Predict the structure.
Amino acid sequence: MIRGALAIFNRDFKKFLSNPFVVIMTLMMPIMYLVIFGNAMGGTISHIPVAVVQEGPPYAPTTLFTDMSYELNHIIQKDGPKLIDVRTYNDEAAAKEDLTKGRVSAVVVVPSDISNDHAVRLYVDSSDSVTPALVESAVMKVLARLHADNPVMVNKIYGDIKYIQFFGVGVIMMGIFTSTMFGGGIALIRDREAGIHEGYLVTPVQRTSIIAGIICSGTIRAFIAGFAIFFIDILITGIMIHSIGQFLLAMLVILIACIGVTSLVVSFASRFSAQQEYASVVAFLNLVLFMTSGAFYPIIGMPEWLRWITVINPEYYGIDALRGIILRGQGIDVIGIDLIALLLFSGAMFILGIASYRRTLE
């Protein structure tokens, strides 16, 4: 009995050691969780862009306006970095427009000398789960430091948005990437192992057409999964879709993302002959993409070296576009950069997917 158990153990353990790539990836995962997750979550928020403007029509700058602008711009946190980067405006409407377009995170409107209530009005982007509270706290501290008794009126320009709604939008894009990269890629490798793709080669269909068909089929499956996640997410989080245009624009973002991630899966699957190797790499890639996408925590709180990953992370642009559409009610004029980034990613991955998998068929 013991001899038999040892024989099975010896065979199974040698099989594990025979694939050093999987062993290395298994050891790397906890380290990457520590490095990526530890830095992406709960980092120090710094350099929040905040517009400060005196209520108009334009009057001579008041002492309160000058002092508040200076003090807000010089709030230093315990570990060193500035909390706020002040941008002074002459026009309140222009400052609010930049807030709706995401160029600043908040607008502080300082009362003029002829103000009736002398209230400091604070407009914040309530689709952000963290920075509004930090800016409000900073404004209150500065007023206390200046011994000013002006009341503060906080205006959440997108209403009360709960964290589950902020996070829920990120889950939509995460679900598309995760389900497609795991399910779609492993299914492709299984089909190749079963010789199904070799059967395509005896047909008169061109190789490029075969690969394009595989990508299109995978895109439709990914889109169906994305739509299902989108619908379930709405039911759980209570997010409201206010117009058919808003819904169609969200579907467009999901479709473009599905094309890109499916093409990425095809190019990845062409490089691996074993499901275990593919799964270990995809798990690693999913970790990096999701943790740097801003789904959990605003990217402004990430260290600089991690933000560079975000710049090339397609999941970030998908999440940012969906948040703009669903939570802020923004149109294509505001999320245009996100759409361009997704289109570039999807186009590049489509070409790469065809080129990579064509070599496999040949």
Remarks:
- Residues 270 and 360 are 6 Å apart (CA to CA).
- DSSP finds 13 helices and five strands in the chain.
- The first strand starts at residue 48 and ends at 54.
- The chain has a mean pLDDT of 82.
